[in-house]
Specification:
Length: about 250
């Protein structure tokens, strides 16, 4: 398996999109830094908040596009067939792809963390856990992208599906809070149905709003329960998504 992981990682490094992602993270961080510097008060806090959010969005979008299109090219070029012609199981192959892309995500997360550190760290404890959360979020997004890429034939649709799930999981807290207000519909029973439906959905999908909170960078960790939530979700959903992708991959005929 190590040989396959190394090959996948080296192949990813040769992809132009890998370097385009690094340039995108650097560019978005610089632009966000310039925008934050225009603030009349709390300049350092605004700069760090803008830079962290823009870099995170850039790296997440880049990882989804990279993983989905890289895998689609592997299918179209019959690279997957070459792998399967060797004495390797489909489960090992898919896990090898996750490890290979996880290394790619690690490099981009490390570059993002280094850029933020150069801009100035306000709270070291919050910065450490934000960095750890970013890495776990990237690995979870890689698992989501792999599941979509292995189950959906179109690279474009797999990107849209992955980003749609990520955005919904990121904004689920906002949707629940809006539904709890009870002012969306005139009939209250509709509001109740929507409220409990969203709560039910939130127990099934990963809650990405618990990852990489900008507040940690400024004020540090206020509730240590948040740390358990993002760590447990990564520990649960990454294996679950990989298992689901493996189950679908085993049914495919080549």
């Amino acid at each position: 398996m190590f040989t396959n992981i190394r090959y996948i990682f080296l192949t990813a490094l040769r992809d132009r999109l890998f370097w385009a992602m690094l340039i995108g993270v650097l560019g978005s961080s610089i632009i966000a830094h310039m925008l934050g510097a225009t603030a009349s008060i709390n300049t350092a806090e605004m700069t760090l908040s803008y830079s962290s959010n823009s870099a995170r969005i850039m790296i997440i979008v880049g990882l989804v596009i990279f993983a989905c299109f890289h895998l689609r090219n592997a299918f179209d070029s019959h690279e997957i067939d070459v792998f399967l012609s060797r004495p390797i199981t489909r489960a090992n192959l898919l896990i090898s792809y996750w490890f290979g892309f996880a290394f790619v995500a690690f490099l981009h997360a490390a570059a993002t963390i280094a850029l933020l550190a150069l801009q100035g760290v306000i709270n070291w404890q919050g910065f450490f856990f934000w960095s750890l959360s970013l890495l776990l979020e990237c690995w979870l997004v890689v698992a989501i992208a792999l599941f979509a890429a292995f189950t959906i034939r179109s690279a474009v649709i797999s990107v849209v599906a992955s980003m749609g799930l990520y955005l919904f999981a990121r904004m689920i807290a906002f949707f629940i809070a809006t539904a709890n207000s009870g002012f969306l519909f005139e009939k209250q029973w509709v509001n109740y149905v929507l409220q409990y439906s969203l709560k039910g959905i939130s127990t099934l999908i990963p809650r990405m709003d618990f990852f990489t909170k900008s507040d940690w960078l400024i004020n540090g960790i206020k509730d240590y329960g948040d740390l358990k939530l993002f760590a447990l979700q990564a520990a649960i959903y990454i294996p679950l998504l990989l298992w689901a992708a493996i189950a679908d991959f085993r049914r495919k005929q080549f």
